[in-house]
Every structure is written in C-alpha cells, then in structure tokens.
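Fig. S4 source data, part A: sequence.
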Amino acid sequence: MYLDIEMLLRHLWVVGMTGAGKSSAYCFWILNLLKLGYPIGLIDPNNDLVTDVVDQLAMLPKKRWEQLVVWNIRNTVSAIGLNVVELKPGEDAPTKFAFLASVIAKIFAADPLITARMQRVMMHTFWLLSRFNLTLVEYQKVLTDKNFRMQLVALLREEEYELKDYWLHEFTDNPKQVTDWTQSSLNKIGAMTANTSLKRILGQPRSTLDFRLLMDEEISLLVALCIGALGEPGKFSESRKLSRT
C-alpha cells in the first residue's frame, strides 16, 4: 500500500467493494503521513474514518498530537465556533459575501430563475450581519423584522453608502414582494440554523477555528461531519481548539 508523496498531491480515487479495505488503506496512509510530520486535512461525511484514525493516535509521537485538531460537529460540550459572516482584516466584504452566496446557491441547487436575486439578497444580508458582529442565526430576523433591519441600517456609517443604499432604495418595501424575494434564501439558511448542533457552531459571533492559521502553522485537521446524525452524542471531541489572538 505504498504511495509516493507526489502521487498524494494529485487526485486519488480508491475503488472497491464494501469490506475490501478502502477505509483501512485511508487510515494507514493518514497515520503514516501524520507520523512523518505532514499536515493533512480530512473531511469525513460520516465519522467512521476519523474515529478509526483517532483510535490509533496512540501510535504517534506526542508532538504530533499537538499539531492536530479533531472536530466532531456533534460535540455539545465545547463546540467550535464558525461564524461564516465574520469579516477578517483585509477581506473585501462584497467579494467575500458574493462568493458565500454563490456557494450556498450551488449547494442547494437553487432555481436559476431566482438565483441572481436570491444571491444579491444573501450577499447584502451577510454584509449587514458582519457589520454588527452578528451570525447566520440572525439572518431570518434581518429579513422578516423590518424594524430590526432598519435599526441596523440607520447605524451604518456614511462611507458605507453602497450597503445602505441597497436596503433603503433597492430592497423592496412591499410585504408580498419581500416574501417573494426572501423565501428561497430563508429556507436554505433556516435549514442550517434550525439544527441544534449547527446552530451552536454557526451562532458564535467569533470563530474559534481559523483555517488560515491551521494552514500557515501546518496543523492537521480531522473533521467528522456526521451526515444524517447531527445532534447525537459523539464518540470523541476536539483534541484541541485554535483561537486567533
């Protein structure tokens, strides 16, 4: 099962029947990469592979453990925070939030007939949320509570005219049109924030996991997404949390 490092830098497709040893091969490669000091990123939709790796971490030198973050999103004791609308220094708000809106539209395979308007609504809502250190949890309130929305808009600075103009002059004031314009994105964001585990993660104003920091410091990240089982007790929790200082 030897693989050259150069080969791992390319796309690798492991094919085999159930029980053929695909997960065992992955686990073997991952543990050896960690042992050799190579940083890795693993996103496991279920959590079986991450669990297998974690169960064998004892074979690694202690210093390798200190360069590893294990994130099980079902953890309810010390949930990592991930505020996707948090604007970091040097980031351009329109660019970042337009990209985030397009990603969400693709994930949910949004109707092409409403995608452009939906993405524009999402982009400016994300932007407004970030301006006041809010999160996706407040997304619905911004779009359904006009008084709350206008309170935020009134607090925008003069130089933030582009964001202010959108809410004052472009976003509709007609109640029926508001529903038409916002229903699609509310359904998509609501699907994420309605889940207790995801809400605990996405509802923290300050992210406690910095992916840029992980890459710069060559720290490995193992993520168990636990698709289809969110909210159930996990078999393990984070081995370490990285916070920006």
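Fig. S4 source data, part B ends here. The chain has twelve helices and three strands.
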